[in-house]
Structures are given as C-alpha cells and as structure tokens.
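All the exercises in this workshop are built on plain-text protein records. Instead of coordinates, the fold is spelled out as a row of discrete tokens. Once this layout is familiar, the rest of the handout is easier to follow. The record below serves as our worked example for the rest of this section.
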Amino acid sequence: MNAENRDADARSTDPAESPVDAMLAALTLSDTGARTSEDIFTAPSQWMPHGRVFGGQVAAQSVMAAMRTVEADRSIHSMHGYFLRPGDVAQPITFSVDRIHDGRSFSTRRSQAYQNGVPIFSMIASFQDDDPGLEHQAAMPEGLPQPEELPSAAEALEPIDHPTARFWASSRPFDLRHAPGPVYFRVEGEKVPHQAVWLRALSPLPEDENLHRAALAYASDYSILEPILRVHGHSWATPRLKAASLDHAMWWHRFARVDDWLCYVQESPNAIGGRGLSTGRIFTRDGVLVASVAQEGMVRVPGTHH
C-alpha cells in the first residue's frame, strides 16, 4: 500500500460507528443544573475491553468540565491530576468543579470525577488570558520518519487475532504511528528509554479550540508509559504485566489542531519501586512545541517485585 492510500484508509470510518464520534460524545458534558458550592456536570464513559475507564478520557472530561466554568478569553495552560480509583465503563461519571480563584490574568479550578459517590480522578487546572511575554521553545528532534513512512495502528495490529488488538486497531479515535515500531506485542529495535509517536484524530474535529485542547489531553495518555516498557524489553503483552497511570501533568504552550499530525516525543528518566516516570513533548509537523506532559505510572512485571 502506498503512503497516500495508507493515509486515506487510516482516516476513513463509518460515521455511524466512528471512534471520533464516540470521543466527542464523551467530551460533551451535561450540565445537571445542580448547584452547591460547585458546578456539577455528567458525562458517559466509553467502552473499553478491560472494563476500566480510559485515563485519558476522564482527564479530558475533567478539563472540559473546568473549561465550562471559565470565561472564554482564558485558555487552559496547565493541569495536574491524580488517578485515584479505576473507573467503571458501565457507569456515567459525575464531575464537580470548584471555582477556586479568578484573578486579573489567571483562573484556577479544581475538577473531581465521581462514580458511586467516591472520586476516581482529581485535578487542578490553571487558565490564563492572552498575555505577551518572553518566548522560546525546545527544538523538535531531527531525523524522525514522517507519519506517511510508518504503518498505521490498524496496519501494525492487523496480524494479531486478539480482542484488545482489534479494539486498538479499529475503535480508538486516534491513529498512533511509532518510531521505532510499537510495543503492542513485542519490542522492535534497541531497548532504549525513548520513542516518538505520531498521532492524529481519525477524522476532522469541530472548530472549537477548547475541544482540541481537551482531545490532546485525551491522546496524551495513550503511550506515555511505553518508554518504561521499551527500555526493559517488555511489551503490553508481557504476561502478568500490571500498568496503570498514577498521576498526569500537562502544559499547553501553543494551540494546535489534533486532526493534524502531531509528533509526541517521549522518554523515561527513571523507574524504581514499581513506578516509572515518563515525560513527553508534543510538536506540530513543522516543529512548533505545542505541549509538554509528565506522568508517573505503576509498572509491575513478574519477577521484579515482591
């Protein structure tokens, strides 16, 4: 398959079953009208093969909830969240937003996500109006292959007859293209603590800039822990592997559309005690730094812990 056809096939979806439509539905929160000292919203959960809510989904929903309480001229620039309990995909999620502070330039919000009356995710986010200031950015690494030169997620997973592989291949709203190859079922190439992942929504998203920012938070959780696995030669298919996000921090530097190709450059500086830390930088195709990400996760492999 040539690059043009590969690209077209990766983006073609049945609108009735579109994974992007499912993501957009999850990010369309309902205002309950209830008011205590907080704003209350609800949203559905997306189905996942393991029955647990995808961390990127609840993080993005929490971001959307916070955005609903901030003036339109202020954009999110940072969030710091903790995953407290596994979420159940069979239940909706309730979000409470505490309007902690509104200053002359910044606003601060706390979002909490609840199921069964207990929090599953807790986040504080900061928003700022458009202010001038000093500007610089890290450079995008040179020599990375272009996304058209890499197999789509569907192509990489096509040979694997497994329910999770079929879900990853056809039901995620983003195409992920790894350089070097993915660590879905084996580690290709050198065992190094870094990788790059090209990502793009499978179909165009609405023009709402806040939606694109939230969708970027959604996608940022997909592969951020993979450098921890890669450097030790483990894949997601390693028997009895246990991995889960513990916390997630993200800084939005500049606006970018998530339905254009973005390059997510990731590395892991440390792993110890059953936990691993990964950091990431997200660039546009022409090298503009869009966002930075950090996440610590639980990563337990049989034989390496008590």
